[in-house]
Amino acid sequence: MGFDDVAAVVRDRVEPSPAEREALAEAVETLLTRVEAAVADLDVPATVTHVGSTARDTWLRGERDIDVFVEFPTNLSRGALEQYGLQIGHEVLPEGREEYAEHPYVTGDIDGFAVDLVPCYAVPSAHAIESAVDRTPFHSAYLKERLTPEHVAEIRVFKQFLQAICVYGSNLRTQGFSGYLTELLVLEFGSTKAVLEAAVDWQPPVVIDPEDHGERSFPDPLVVIDPTDPTRNVAAVLSAENLARFQHHARDILANPRVAAFFPAPPEPLSVADVEAHITARGTTPLALVFPTPDLVDDELYPQLRKSLDGIGDELDRRGFDVLRQSVFADTRAVLLFELAVPTRPRVTRHLGPPVAVRKHAETFYDTYADEDAYGPFIDGNRYVVERAREFDTARAFLESDALFETRLGPAIEAALREDATILEGQEVTELADAFGVAFARYFAPSP
Amino acid sequence: MGFDDVAAVVRDRVEPSPAEREALAEAVETLLTRVEAAVADLDVPATVTHVGSTARDTWLRGERDIDVFVEFPTNLSRGALEQYGLQIGHEVLPEGREEYAEHPYVTGDIDGFAVDLVPCYAVPSAHAIESAVDRTPFHSAYLKERLTPEHVAEIRVFKQFLQAICVYGSNLRTQGFSGYLTELLVLEFGSTKAVLEAAVDWQPPVVIDPEDHGERSFPDPLVVIDPTDPTRNVAAVLSAENLARFQHHARDILANPRVAAFFPAPPEPLSVADVEAHITARGTTPLALVFPTPDLVDDELYPQLRKSLDGIGDELDRRGFDVLRQSVFADTRAVLLFELAVPTRPRVTRHLGPPVAVRKHAETFYDTYADEDAYGPFIDGNRYVVERAREFDTARAFLESDALFETRLGPAIEAALREDATILEGQEVTELADAFGVAFARYFAPSP
């Protein structure tokens, strides 16, 4: 099968069914009626807009998300906007609950659809926003004006592809492609195949500017200038790793088109015995810090987890405990996993001094260490060297010490580690297999 | 005691006694008479010259070396020169034995003095030499013309200092200061103290050109242009390490002048138990290659041992077995000692591929490893990575393999290792303490 045949099959499979569309239309109508009624009770005017993929028919079969924005005048205070937003939300979605992004909003359920009801300011342009959500209605309007039914069908295929390779989603856990970015790319290139064919040869940084109005540069590997805001990169959240992953899979699917690649089965979870076998085969020493996951939204949790992983990993490396690989797992417990090539070091560590000829520094170095309980100073090449006692000769001793808290840690992670952390070493980590079998599967059978 | 007082005491102690001088004079007279007689029997003219420190009164009390050179006309063939040289040698020193530097000569004993009887060519200038020994008579003549009795006394003090700090001798084992270099430095600066005071602030490379006639540059840290040959660096053999050592001790003796520093006791040899205690305290893994010492002169043996030590040490490092320190010991057995911080590595090793965006290289890398029995390829940052089986997961396994012979080895060392090598690991090396107790003492109590 050629790529076009594969894409046609995928297109059919991801298109919402007539029954789904009908159910959606009914739910949206019910919802908008209720919101309009709630707005009418207020003493300020407000515009109600259905946005997002269900508004543009770019949703995938089986997805059930409705996003409705309520745009208030910009002269309304932020406090009042938040209050009105919540008031409407609770009136429309009596069983809904409050969430918090840049400001609070209400999320709930109508006829089996997940509804986000978000208040924002009706700013004059996307460049003049007061908070990030104010942009959404502009994005929605821009796309609605331009997307053809052909675009819409291709967007679904492209989105399915990005989901299959785990790079769909602009949250800070995924660091992938946002829905808006996905739609802009298809609009720009015309089809999924055209996007993929362009991507295989991208040399990051890649800059795409649909309206040719970009006003500044960005440090990101992929830059797509927002058609509604010349100062914003729509792809700012996309990581270099996910862009590389996308390029790899673009080449792969074009070289070997197949429907199955769009609908991968999730990996089989590894058992305790599987994890044990991998550790033995690799001959490494896993070291895990395990603690109750802090109660934060993913957009706050994952950046803190990654910062902590990098901070501790760098310090382990600096202290000579070579980290072969490291990873984060999280559900109710969070795991910072370091797979060490070298879990122990000698009691002494080499400390290289200045060249003997650089008299002032050399004399200071020599005088500092001459009477210390150390080997040396002696001369190696043209420099002084001393072998001093190492602070920690096992990685575990370092993790158990207060020096752990001098590394770069997310604040909530530091608090959690201080309160209640367990260290697992070597085969002890196999006890995590019950909870994190799929994460272990991805870790021990890594693929692009 | 100030430095001058210390130097005065040392001067007295190292000056040959009247009885020694008388014995030397008698031995030299006997020797020269015999050599002249032997030369008279030849059908070519030749000049007999007493050279070296006993010829210039710069020998230390207790030293007993007489060097006599026999200078032949340059039209004599090399073969004839060697034959005549040996013939005279055996006639004068009937119990002597042949040695070999650039060409053969005879060494033996007269009245308790060690005699070297060396044939050379009477070249017109030191620059026109046919072999290195042809220079010696020029050096001898240059110094004899210029050295005052004060210089001579200071040279003995300086030589004693250099011996005390183990940097005296231009052989390739020591890589230190030659006798000629030592005498030139005192001639140039006027006294031991003046040389030391200059040396404390040297910023290598340091260039000294007594006759101000140097014709080229040299890559060495100390350059002393030969007054008898503008194209030669007298200090070419001096290593950067020994120059640094000299600077350290120059500062030390000037800051804290003491007679004892000129006459250090040799270190107490370490016992098996001492070596064991050091290994435990350091928490390292010593790994020793032990083999019968090849039958070579030190000037050939030590460069080969050091080349092999560096070649194997670099390869151990490259394979992840961090070498904390390495050293060579030799008597009848030779020891290449590697003190490892990391004696074992995991079974897998990380292999970093190209950035995914560099399509041609990236595709080649991916295709190469996709079907191999390895972890990955996966993506880390913007690059492919694969974790492959490591060739050797212990340093010992590497030393036991044929891969050892792919490192840079001296040819005689390679032959010895192939024939009969033993590997000692960890506390097994303590069995070397009986033979190498002093070497272990220098190794485990290193000083400048």
Q: Largest beta sheet of chain A: what is the strand line-up?
A: 1-2-5-4-3
Annotation field: number of helices of chain A: 15
Broad structural category of chain A: alpha+beta
Q: What portion of residues of chain A belong to β-strands?
A: 15-25%
- Overall shape of chain A: it is elongated
Element pattern of chain A in H and E: HHEHEHEEEHHHHEEEHHEHEEEHEEHHEH
Give the largest interface.
A-B, 53 and 53 residues
The share of residues in helices of chain A is 40-55%
Rg of chain A from C-alpha positions? 27 Å
Q: Mean of the pLDDT scores of chain A?
A: 95
Instruction: Describe the main β-sheet of chain A briefly.
Output: 5 strands, mixed
Measured between the Cα atoms of the first and last residue of chain A, the distance is 23 Å
Regarding quaternary structure, what we see is: homodimer
The number of strands of chain A is 15
| Residue runs with pLDDT of under 50 for 5 or more positions of chain A | none
